[in-house]
Amino acid sequence: MKLEDLNLYNECQIFEQELWNKVSNWEDFAKDTLGKKLVLTADNISSNIAQGYGRYFFEENRQFCYKSRGALLDTRGLIKKAFDRNLISEEDFNTYEAEIEKLHKMLNAYIRSIGKRIEQSKNNSSAPASKNEKTDESSTENVSTNDDFTFESLM
Predict the structure, then answer these.
(1) pLDDT band at 57 (very low <50, low <70, confident <90, very high)
(2) What is the DSSP string of 27-53?
(3) Domain that residue 103 falls in
(4) What is the CATH number of the domain that holds 19?
């Protein structure tokens, strides 16, 4: 499976582009202060998912996903600042909050699925959990926003 097949990654990319489009229309002072920080932090969400996805060991992937979750929550705080400073409307704020909540649940589910793969690997051998081990990735269920995700449902 390629990174681009991961629904979580694609959803993050869309969200980040929406923020870019919004911030690019701000006045220079707002763009130079809060805007740049907001865009860079948001871009770190999918960047960390990609970095982790490219790692050989599942544990490394999980660590990068923790960084991604931190960037997501940092983004939430910066969006709140943008709202408090009247840079985004209440409607945009609520839309972004809902999207962050959805991404947060998806990311937590992805992290849990990585943890399950680490445990499966430990139970099968004493070697470190690597991505080269055989796993069942044939399921392509639709993604919902509940907390009962599996890695396969994110594809």
Answers:
(1) confident
(2) -HHHIIIIIHHHHHHHHHHHHHHHHHH
(3) 3-154
(4) 1.20.1440.60
Structural domain count of the chain: 1
Find the DSSP H helices in the chain.
7-23, 28-30, 36-53, 58-84, 90-124
Rounded Cα distance between 64 and 143, Å, is 22
Whole-angstrom distance, CA of residue 136 vs CA of residue 67: 26
Residue 43: which of 66, 22, 71, 73 has the closest Cα?
A: 71
Check: pTM over 0.90? Answer yes or no: no
Decide: 43 and 68 in contact? Cβ < 8 Å: no
Instruction: Note the pLDDT tens digit of each residue in 114-134.
Output: 877 666 666 776 555 455 443
